[in-house]
Specification:
4 helices, alpha+beta, HTH_63, three-stranded antiparallel beta sheet
């Protein structure tokens, strides 16, 4: 299965001709080099929104893992549970991008170990803009791939969608090419 076409990436189970909203979750407190790469990636997502390929893009930092105070915002645990439910229902896994890890609270082993969720640097969650139903998430892994597991990444999805968008609006007539050239002067 090629990732050259957005339709070939099943992590998005909707047609790009429909209105797709993307919630983009990013980690905070990352090194400068990683921050620059995240910024470039977010610019790609915003460009897809500006060109009309995506209906809406919301960028947020990953929320706190557990509820802090009285808030109506979902916790990281709640978000990942929602994502995991979608993935399970559609034959995907969130690993290795999302990973649950056991941590000992006490070096002496007095406390019961707790579980923490390691989230990816960036995740894109797709919703049908009309009915708000979740349509997909990257990164994710499809275990039903013919030759074993297949992990779909954010970069790969963006590349496929950018390629799809450029193929969907070719400027191959002389009139369109002339208009583009004249507009760039």
């Amino acid at each position: 299965m090629s990732a050259d076409n957005a339709a070939d990436i099943p992590a998005l189970e909707t047609d790009l001709t429909e209105a797709v909203r993307v919630d983009c979750y990013v980690r905070s407190n990352v090194p400068t080099a990683v921050s620059e790469r995240l910024t470039a990636l977010l610019e790609r997502v915003r460009t897809l929104e500006e060109t009309g390929t995506l209906a809406d893009v919301q960028v947020s930092q990953w929320p706190a893992e557990h509820a802090i105070g009285d808030t109506d915002q979902p916790t990281r645990e709640e978000l990942v549970a929602e994502f995991d439910e979608w993935a399970t229902e559609h034959g995907y896994s969130l690993e290795p991008g999302f990973c649950r890890q056991q941590i000992d609270l006490s070096p002496l082993g007095i406390d019961d170990p707790s579980e923490t969720i390691r989230v990816p640097l960036v995740a894109l969650v797709f919703y049908d803009d009309a009915d708000e139903s979740m349509q997909g998430i990257v990164p994710c892994t499809n275990s039903d791939h013919g030759d074993g597991k297949r992990t779909y990444t954010v970069h790969e999805w963006l590349t496929a969608v950018e390629r799809h968008a450029s193929e969907a609006s070719p400027h191959d007539t002389q009139t369109e090419q002339r208009a583009l050239l004249e507009g760039s002067r």
